[in-house]
């Protein structure tokens, strides 16, 4: 029998990535190493001695696709039904099923798999093979399992045309649709690669997609990241220091002060691939999209599924996770506040801690730093406090927030979310200071080196400067569009606009990324409050902080003047000209302003429209919407609603991102609803709001957090870098030593 060790995706080996012992071992066996490379990149076989194993439901086209793939690779093709089962049993599969019944058939089928062995072949499994655990474990040892993911409605249509009305495992009283849905859990358990297959896609096209997916799987060295400030010449000289997804998650900020972006851009989905997700759940959509953005060498599909299930399985109050609700006319709300801390930050920060824990080396402790303008703080504290106990011992988080620059409930929430590995520090300054301070600390090699040597602790960032924070946000923008299609509001391909309250530019950047990946978004509307530096920039191309002071508003999460993620967008429209980005941000740092070239401004304005909203108009919008619909907008969503009313032309639907629950801003909401001013604690304010039976109801997570006692205290420090570093060192000593 032929035996092969478990296959893992290939990443180019460099001396830097190996211990000296490992590297000497490889150098001592150059002939063997050359043979490995030759086998791997053999012109006649994509995977050398490994098998490509096609898996999927009956009717997915495994046999036909397998033959085409085999022809293209000039390698043997094996159909388990025809070449293994019927040969072994000396009877047809249907006869065997009739002879032994469903349960015994699966066992007999699994036994046949356990006796089967092949190498360098394309193998088409039966639709029921994945239901036998031992058989599939045996098959995975010899190859790469490719899941042909075809929508259930398409499979049912194909089976009907083939006059198949019953499949293995389908008992009396169980519908064909139900058994197909039931089987999905087994397919998802075993695959290494997923290939999306829409309705009328030709087998030849599917075969090409299989080959492309396998090439990607074994060539993770192609999915590298660069800094927004790196020059093209510098990149070509630094190939030995390539950064991959797991690296950028751990490091957060590039060494040169720039932000990490994928060197080859984001993956593109075809219209057919997006349409295959229309019937999918939010978790299924997240899995498919993130698999294409994160290489399995960094996080395998099975682990990614576990992380997504943990993040969104029980922590969100709405089963739809990010539902889309009709507001009025052509306006729809994307409700992003159903997570445990009641803001859109939960979408990333229920996932990122688990991604981080998986990606970091076990040999080092990590302190994650985060700056917040309001919502990020409680979300990051909650997310990292949900890690497994063993991970909490080696990963802690410190949250810096403007002591007097968040709402009372936001502050109570951040203090209440403190746990044994998660702390909050109030800073006597604004968000821009907190964010800039973290960037400076992370790029201070003397200080970070001292912490590593002295305490065995590395620093990392959890703000949206971390690439992993952006990806989950791409998912909900794509999902919102698919929901409108699913609800028959629009046919797929019809455009929508999106309007997003924006301060740090991360959320709107995620919408732009969704557009690049194939979602038909026409315009992204940037909604600012009175801190309208972004609105001015989008309209004029001039980013000017001279003479501007941060204005505290009712929408504190967008009380930001320095928008970090704007740098990623400028790098994109400047055709990855890192030198230009460096020049612009050096000028901003040193002179307080910069101006885009005319051609770049024209590019920007093809994607973006902007407007801003006064405090009075924000409160008036909350009152107006409640009076006409009974629905309460939070202050940030109200800003977006006002701007959408002003700048959108009503020729297509507009999706307004509802980024937080109104419960977090109770005093402003009570004022907007013209309820008598009260001087009560935050919990009393929420109870008062709840007495009005509002839509949506008061957020349960906030109520639970505010009811907790014993977490009222937090540290406060001056706006001084040395003070912040002292707090960091003290925390490290207390938690890790």
UniProtKB/TrEMBL annotation:
GO molecular function, one term: pyridoxal phosphate binding
UniProt KW Amino-acid biosynthesis keyword: yes
GO biological process: amino acid biosynthetic process
Residues modified as N6-(pyridoxal phosphate)lysine: 345
Family of this protein: Belongs to the threonine synthase family.
PROSITE patterns hit by this protein: DEHYDRATASE_SER_THR
Cofactor: pyridoxal 5'-phosphate
Entry-linked Pfam families: SKI (PF01202), Thr_synth_N (PF14821)
Organism: Fregetta grallaria (White-bellied storm-petrel)
Pathway named in the protein's UniProt entry: Amino-acid biosynthesis
Highest taxon above the source species: Eukaryota
Protein name per its UniProtKB record: THNS1 protein
InterPro entries on file: P-loop_NTPase, Ser/Thr_deHydtase_PyrdxlP-BS, Shikimate/glucono_kinase, Shikimate_kinase/TSH1, Thr_synth_N, Thr_synth_N_sf, Thr_synthase-like, TrpB-like_PALP_sf
Residue span, Threonine synthase N-terminal domain: 239-312
GO cellular component annotations of the record: cytoplasm
The keyword Amino-acid biosynthesis is annotated on this UniProt entry: yes
Swiss-Prot/TrEMBL keywords: Amino-acid biosynthesis, Pyridoxal phosphate
